[in-house]
Amino acid sequence: MNNLTTTVKFMEVGGATGSPLRRATRFLLCLSWALLLVALPGRAQTPASERKTITLEELEQMALQNNPTFRQSAANIQAAEGRKKQSRLYPNPTVGYQGEQIRGGAFHGGEQGFFVQQDIVLGGKLGLNRKMFDQELKQAQTEAEEQKLRVVTNVRMSYIQALAAQQTLELRQNLSKLADDAAGTTHQLANIGQADAPDVLESEVEAQQAQLAVTMAEQSQQRAWKALAAVVGNPRLPPMRLEGKLEDIPPVNADELVEQIVNESPAVRIAELGVKRAEAALARAKREPIPDLQLRGGMQQNGELLSGGRSVGLQGFADVGVRIPIFNRNQGNIATAKADAERATREVERVKLVLRERAASVVQNYTFSQTAVDRYKNQMIPRARKAYEMYSKKYQEMAAAYPQVLIAQRTLVQLEVSYITALENFATSSLSLESYLLTDGLEAPSQPGGIDQPVREVNIPFQMSTTPQ
Q: What number of other Cβ atoms are within 10 A of residue 295's Cβ?
């Protein structure tokens, strides 16, 4: 705040009497102060009638219609349904031709005909296949539900950041106007001998710093808006004024939310479904040594001549067999399935621990920002506003110098900017905790059965404030 404070040394006017020039100077300063006093509470960058506005609900509906990750989630569900359907299908039969001694030789023999062969799956292997892929389908469905929560949360978080950038820009513009007016007033005072050259230079530097802060705030607002437009699936969405207030975010119980995250997070549910799938895969691997029944039968025409000169004619045949599991009893696949089941079980524990680890930093940020918001709102800003009003009243009564009014105004604006930053951090942290730490709506949904699939569920992006300090 000190670098934005003008150190101009004005001449104090201690009485009601003075020269006409001094009275004109006092009138000019009072008029400048009155205009700033009217402009400061407004915080209006552009009249509302000249700018289009958009609400959070409209942005959420836009995201639900345009975000491509929803179609990816639907595709994952369709793929899981296809695998489940395929897993329960019976093996296809084999139909073929069979012939022996086709020419028959001198006895005019030979056997020709057709056969049908079918494998009968035993051991309940098809049922275990369905059970295994049913867990994958549930994973895909849970992933789709989680993706919707992720997208909506990302939209709300981007909205909060854009709203904070919008309010910060308005405050920065007011502060820049204040600095420009102060610089102009200093020039006028210098012309009448009431200010020195260092005072003029100092006021010009301060005005330039305020303009640079406005430029940074404008760039932050543009970046926040582009991020919001990308999340809602419409990168060409023109900038609009956001409706809403950061102060409307209610407090939450952080400790209870952490336990809810660990026990009810979609990440944990998906990991638990992974355990069930691994257990079903292990049961399926143990049933694999049970051989399938091989049936083969058919009809054929036997042309061999009998003693009466007639041929044997039409005759049937049948074969029944099984493959004896002597050497290959699926030992390797069973060992692999056991290891996968153990890994899936430990994955549930790992995800819960990672959730606690990631939630700890969010809770810390939430607790600190909650304290900061309370102190800015109930202690610092009221005191700064009261000091500003007192200096203003004293200045009107010619009992205080104009620089004291400027310093009080700048202090109040700086505290309001910091208050917006604290509100932004408080709102984003609260939203992150309420949404199970799911904050990235543009990351592709994981495919069911992926070996590291649950990692995505706790991959929280780095949060950076959109407001310049």
A: 15
* Residue 438: CB atoms within 10 Å: 26
C-alpha–C-alpha distance, residues 274 and 349, integer Å: 12
The C-alpha atoms of residue 75 and residue 144 are separated, in whole angstroms, by: 10
Beta strand 53-54 with 241-242 is: parallel
- Hey, which residues does 84 pair with through a beta bridge? none
Q: Which of 173, 174, 172, 195 is nearest to 28 (CA)?
A: 195
Ranges of H-type helices in 101-124: none
Provide the H-helix boundaries in 123-194. Answer: 125-191
CA 172, chain centre distance (Å): 29
Domains of the chain, residue spans: 2-89+144-265+356-458
Q: Which fold has domain 2-89+144-265+356-458?
A: Outer membrane efflux proteins (OEP) (1.20.1600)
The pLDDT value recorded for residue 244 is: 86
311 Cα distance to chain centroid: 81
Q: Average pLDDT by consecutive 10-residue portion of the chain (469 residues)?
A: 34 39 50 49 43 88 91 91 91 90 65 90 91 91 90 93 93 85 80 76 83 93 94 92 85 89 90 92 93 92 73 85 92 95 92 91 92 93 92 76 74 90 93 89 74 42 38
